[in-house]
Amino acid sequence: MKEEDVFPAPPEPPPPSAWQRLSASPYFWWFAAIFLMGCVVFLFPSQCTFEAIQFPTEKRVDLDQSPFVDQEKELSMAGDGLWYKAGETVPYSGLGVTFHPNGEKKTRTQFAEGIAVGLIEEWDLNGSNLGPRFKGEFSPE
């Protein structure tokens, strides 16, 4: 007597569909890659022009027209290292300007909440702008 098989044979898988046969082909992937690159090359540039892109704009402030205080007469540095306008308890925010003895601008400093920010601009005795400088770069007088 022959023993019966305990495990029956698995059923045959169904034949692959057209999509399964096509997607396994390397030609399918080459075609898909070329199609996507074509979309990138031809469609996106038409949508990404400089006119269509909105760049952030920076507000420019004309410092020559902005209000200022005389830094040597109206501002003083307190013990906490912040600059205050005379008689005020709130740290100064704005421009501080120093002057040469002949009345020409010597330096211009921007203050934000009592702290000098940015570069300090310097002028010579004739009023020619020497350019922005760091704190330790000023010419001795």
Task: Encode the helix/strand succession as letters.
Answer: HHHEHEEEEEE
Strand order of the largest sheet: 1-4-5-6-7
Number of β-strand runs: 7
- Radius of gyration from CA coordinates: 37 Å
Low-confidence stretches: none
Mean pLDDT reading: 80
The CA-CA distance between the termini, in Å, is 121 Å
Summarize the main sheet: 5 strands, mixed
The portion of residues forming beta strands comes to: 25-35%
Q: What's the tally of helices?
A: 4
* Helix percent band: 10-25%
Number of domains: 2
Key words describing this protein structure:
141 residues, alpha+beta, five-stranded mixed beta sheet, two-stranded antiparallel ribbon, 7 strands
Would you mind describing this structure in some detail?
The protein has 141 residues and is an alpha+beta fold. The chain has 2 domains: 18-47; 68-136, no CATH class. It is built from 4 helices and 7 strands. It has helices at residues 18-23, 26-42, 44-47, 71-74, and strands spanning 68-70, 75-77, 83-85, 94-99, 105-112, 115-123, 129-133. It has a 5-stranded mixed β-sheet with strand order 1-4-5-6-7. Strand 4 and strand 5 form a beta hairpin. It starts with 17 loop residues before the first helix and ends in an 8-residue tail after the last strand. The model has no long low-confidence stretch (mean pLDDT 80).
Topology:
Elements: H1 18-23, H2 26-42, H3 44-47, E1 68-70, H4 71-74, E2 75-77, E3 83-85, E4 94-99, E5 105-112, E6 115-123, E7 129-133
Parallel strand pairs: 1-4
Antiparallel strand pairs: 2-3, 4-5, 5-6, 6-7
